[in-house]
Amino acid sequence: MNEILRRAILGAHLDEVDVAARLEVDPKTVRRWLEGRLPHPRHRWNLADLLNLSEVDLWPELRASPSRPDELLAVYPHRSSIPRETWRNLFASAEQEISVLAYSSLFLAEDVDIIRIFAKKAHSGVRVRIALGDPDSPHVTERGAKEAIGDALTVEIRDALVLYQPLRQVGGIEIRLHRVVLYNSIYRADNELLCNQHAFGIPAAHSPIMHLQRQSDDDLASIYLGSFDRIWSAACRQT
Prior knowledge:
This protein has helices at residues 3-11, 16-23, 27-34, 41-51, 55-58, 84-92, 106-109, 112-123, 138-146, 152-164, 220-234, and strands at residues 72-76, 97-101, 127-133, 173-178, 184-189, 192-197, 209-213, 236-237. It is of the alpha+beta class. It has 2 domains: 3-63, lambda repressor-like DNA-binding domains (434 Repressor (Amino-terminal Domain), Orthogonal Bundle), CATH 1.10.260; 72-237, Endonuclease Chain A (Endonuclease, Chain A, 2-Layer Sandwich), CATH 3.30.870.10.
């Protein structure tokens, strides 16, 4: 229990519902903060301003080195260092949703077992959403130029679309094309995801990737999942 935060809220003549309304979060989120969960920076800043205190007044542990977030399961130096079985186990664990956000995700499309898992999961009622870059998008062309690979990325996307083609006949699977600049690729199975960072001038396969597990509606994993939903809603169905 964060007694300092509880006393500060009471001293400001507020309650959990008041704080939730002011910060535009769920009251359950405020309850978790009171129970000891450390809010993410933007919420800490807003809460400290609301209570007219500093962050370290409310959370003295911030004076020490920050700890590893609970939702961070692992960090890989680059995507290609992740064992093949890790990818398969991730998607095979899904019970509600599988989501893929990338430019091409060709490495998945080329894996016959992954394709079978997607189809099998969809048949069992799991929602499968795959968002790839529109090969005609200027952002795809720009990405290829920054990685010094010419039109190779465009070719990879078209190849992936061909390999994903059989999945379009499976109910519960939808493929869309986006036209946005990606700062990361996302591979999700329910509340667990692998988030591939996009470092400037470096192919995604050689960039770092975080293994995250969503634990609350305001943690690190939720930020990336919200990003996926925004891109998905603006993406176009593949024709």
